[in-house]
Amino acid sequence: MAEPVIAIVGRANVGKSTLFNKLTQSRSAIVDDTPGVTRDRIYGAAEFGRRSVLIVDTGGIDVDAANQIGLKVMEQAVWAREEADFVVVVADNQTGLTGADREIISQVRKAGKPFFLAVNKVDSPAHHFILSEFFKLGLTDNTFPISAEHGNGLYELIQAISESLPAAEPEPDFGGDDIRIAVVGKPNVGKSSLINRLLKSERCIVSDAPGTTRDAIDTFLEWNGRRFVLVDTAGIRRKGKTRGGLDKFSVIMALKALDRCDVAVLVLDSSSQVSDQDATVAGYAVDRGKACLILGNKWDLSGEKEISFDEFEELVRHKFKFMEFAPVMTASAKTGLRIDKILPQVEKVYEEYSRKVPTATLNECFERAVQKNPMPSYRGKFMKLFYVTQVKKQPPTFKCFLNFPGGVHFSYRRYLINSLRKTFGFSGTPVRLILAGKRKIDP
Question: pLDDT tens, 61-76?
């Protein structure tokens, strides 16, 4: 189910990042008194009224007049109103209502979407008032005095947003055996070119300019009697390189595409160094429990650097230590090299992602693992594994019932997962292990 997207917008230095950190209970947004310190979008998950939401922090309006402040205001308001489900406009009570504030509010109003005005920096009970000019906007029911720094008024704001959230929709049915593929990666690694090769047509826009694909485009493809759904996503830029509003939301569209897919094909530029940003994108897919295939594109250019496949795979494995389960392959969208190998590999990964292990066989695997490497004691008592069952596919998820689930060290958990992989494979898919207390077993 797609999470509602809540965009936090406003002028520079009004407290958007501080509010974001409070709502998501994180420190992932840089907070600084210097206007314009948030250089790209930051996003995070939160729970509002038992609903998961995706909150997006945005860069403020550039205070340098040479950078056309008016256009920055319009850009921010436009992408917020077009892509977000809800908008929180943040203003500064100490500065008062400005023309930029009015412009943002006007643009969001035109979109007809739910929005809330958070008047920030109402920091103490002695100053718990909103300047009268904010009430003249006619938004009395949607205006909230808050202190993002101290947390004052946030409960009321969250409650109002929660009550405005639509009812949760059922999980979409994408169709029987269709395999949905999200093609993800940084800009300009050749994602659209790759899809065009697979489709043998020019149904996607291809350009050398990074970020040409602004939205997620679903395209259907039949191969070997099977239907695939290809999702071409906007490239994810390095931190500090995301400038325009549409570029900011391209990351959110990529994340939404991952939420809707079965298999994530992470496209790398094999002619360049594997970067931290490549690893970040890979982490998005793993966090969402998606099957993964790592594809080094532009292999025709890699030949000029005389790098072998083994050397490339070693570089990838070193950078993606958390994704050692994912197959690595190389191709060239430009020349067509090994393009015909991609879908067969995706199909194999999907089968592992959807595998169901019989309960008896599963418990035999764990019994052998524990016999080979007994569980350590916990607080002077022996730990015992009673029973294991698979509770979910896509990704394969297993529940272990023990007498002391809290005593299992992460290294032993990893050992159990590796034992599963050694016995059953699970190539290309994350494997999740849930530890629970003793359960009564029916005779």
Answer: 444 444 454 455 455 5
